[in-house]
Amino acid sequence: ATAQIGVTGLAVMGRNLARNFARRGYTVAVHNRSYAKTASLVADHGTEGTFVASESMADFVASLAVPRKVVIMVKAGGPTDAVIAELVPLLAAGDIVIDAGNAHFPDTIRREAELAAHGLHFVGTGVSGGEEGALNGPSIMPGGSPESYAVLGPILESIAAQVDGVPCCTYVGANGAGHFVKMVHNGIEYADMQLIAEAYDLLRLGLGATAAQISEIFAQWNTGDLESFLIEISADVLAHTDPVTGAAFVDVVLDQAEQKGTGRWTVQNALDLGVPITGIAEATFARALSGSVPQRAAAVGVLPAHAAAWDIAPEDRAAFIEDVRLALYASKVVAYSQGFDQIAAASAEFGWDVDRGAMARIWRGGCIIRARFLNRITEAYERDAHLPLLLADAYFTGVMDDGVGAWRRIVAAAALHGVPTPGFSSSLSYYDGVRAERLPAALIQAQRDFFGAHTYRRVDRAGTFHTEWTGDRSETAL
Ligand code: NDP
């Protein structure tokens, strides 16, 4: 038994993770349900490090040094449970099972409890960065027991992306915390992508800019506050020419965005917790709208627009581009602020004690939402670990001070010209809602008391009240 770590499940992600471990000098036990993938990993990459290949799960487990550390990287859901069921009888108390797939966090909570009953550590781990990240350094979000992190953490930190010498991996919290944070990461990714797409659409329609011109604008933005992997690849995609038609590649792609479900999970959980993550929700629904084929077919050319034609004078084009940039940055800050609110709410609900500043820090490299401005989030939580609203941190109020005027102009222009901007618009509504001294929720609560005797509280007196709406309209203190 010599292997320091094992990986079972050797499709693209597991294969690359195993190679990453091996390249860092670990002896890696490798296993896959069907042996072909194991054999090809060793045949293609055996020279990159030391692999111990096994055909059976029993041999695989036997090849691991104690306490055994087994990374499961298989299809999320039933397959993960199947692999766990096969592993458990082969393991001993103190061994560590790591699920690095995209598990739904309630499954992770359940599995952690089941394995803890066997004396095993179960580490549900978010891994972001796709196959490239898995090979060269992903962002890693491990949950589970602090004891398991003490053993496993250094290994994971050594294969994670590094930014300024700091690994993009840290202990997140008990049981499902790691997969939860990975889920919210993906939700934020949905929002980020939607906002970039809206900026692209506004530049396309407002200025009549070509994909190549917008690519240049994005490349320029990527040198400032918006610097991020997603802006960078968007510039790349927009610069790409379709080899078949010679047209801009983006113009030949069908305009229907798909999803694997993590955005949906994020929104479902936010509804459960009562956290308004409007940016992520709108981004998820925008993908759903793009795929609403019969509805779109019924609407195109039928629904009246009464939208103004764009007419931006040449001398105003630069100002429009800057307005779009500021609106994008402000909307992005809102989406992150909402996502971090959701992490705080779940952390309180499940007792995870997640350090939000540390989450922003481990997202700076390796993962899809890696971005310069994540440093700003870490700094904000360093100033106040219990910050109730990220937006209210001094740096971000400064961002809003600079950008909110532009943001209003862009959302108003989009509405007047009939351009859908669910991300920009809903984020601005959230912003105005959360900063409002008084909301029309007062009327809603009064309506609820009227039809359902749901009671209300008053601004001027403590207690709970009900008005006899159908009687003499007298008020009762309850
Ligand atoms: P897949 O999700 O395509 O899963 C294929 C692997 O699962 C194969 O090794 C397959 O074995 C194994 N498998 C499927 N069913 C079973 C079963 N019943 N018992 C045992 N093994 C089974 O692989 P990926 O590499 O794309 O992804 C692995 C995990 O990583 C997934 O959870 C996925 O969601 C996540 N992922 C994460 C990404 C990220 O950026 N973090 C990106 C992509 C994926 P066999 O070869 O025998 O069929």
From TrEMBL:
Which residues are NADP(+)-binding? 9-14, 32-34, 74-76, 102
Q: What EC designation does it have? A: 1.1.1.44
Q: Where is the 6-phosphogluconate dehydrogenase C-terminal domain?
A: 178-470
Database matches in PROSITE patterns: 6PGD
Q: Which residues form a coiled coil?
A: none
- What pathway is this protein said to act in by its record? Carbohydrate degradation; pentose phosphate pathway; D-ribulose 5-phosphate from D-glucose 6-phosphate (oxidative stage): step 3/3
The answer, when asked if ATP-binding is one of the entry's keywords, is no
The record's Gene Ontology biological-process terms are: D-gluconate metabolic process; pentose-phosphate shunt
Q: Which family does it belong to?
A: Belongs to the 6-phosphogluconate dehydrogenase family.
Task of the protein: Catalyzes the oxidative decarboxylation of 6-phosphogluconate to ribulose 5-phosphate and CO(2), with concomitant reduction of NADP to NADPH.
* Protein name (database record): 6-phosphogluconate dehydrogenase, decarboxylating
**Whose protein is this, by species?**
Pengzhenrongella frigida
